[in-house]
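Session log. Operator J.P. requested a structure for one protein chain; no other inputs attached. Running the standard single-chain path with token output.
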Amino acid sequence: MNTPTQYMTGIRFAKCVLLLVIPLLLVTTSTGCINQLAGLLYVIKGHKVAPKFQGLEGKRVAVLCLSDASAYGPDTLTYTVSKHVGIKIAQGVKNVEVVGPGKIESWIDENGWKESKVVALGKGVKADMVIVIEIGSYSIHEGATMYKGNADLTVTVYDIKKNGQISFADGPDLFSFPENGRPAVQTSDRQFESFYLARLTEHISKLFVPYDKMESFADDAMMN
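Structure written below.
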């Protein structure tokens, strides 16, 4: 029977093996090798990373995304980010209730939006917490022949039960992905934007939802 000390030694050895093997696998574009990498990462399990903010459990939460374009009305970017971050929070936080994005848009259509109205919005949709995601700049192109997503993010959580007190703030933070870009000949604007927004919403949700560090690394390796 293995002792706890032997078990921990085995874990450390596995990590060392990964550090040696991963660079070798990443230098190839073979799908088979990338799949081997993903499988290898699952040798080490249970590496859950706690989110930066853990105050959403048991709360009714509204998620609002704003951008320069959304100041002139609803836009696809902010709706997509709000919706998918809300879904990830609903799936990953215990006993949380997430307000549907349609209800938030309806309230804003009727009442307008200013930052000073965050408490009124929260009360209007019966939320305990309002998460405001601000995207200061956004692009998916790096030059004429390369795709690379870039977004300046600021995320703020307001406690409506405490008259809008800020419970958590993160950013400004520049999220770029993939690190080395992707040649434009390999995809289209629509395909790449869908790919990038999936990573962007996952990046934001990690502020609030526990995640497996090894699983996240495997996903990034397969998508780069």
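Operator note: Strands lie at 48-49, 60-67, 97-98, 129-141, 146-159, 165-183, 211-212.
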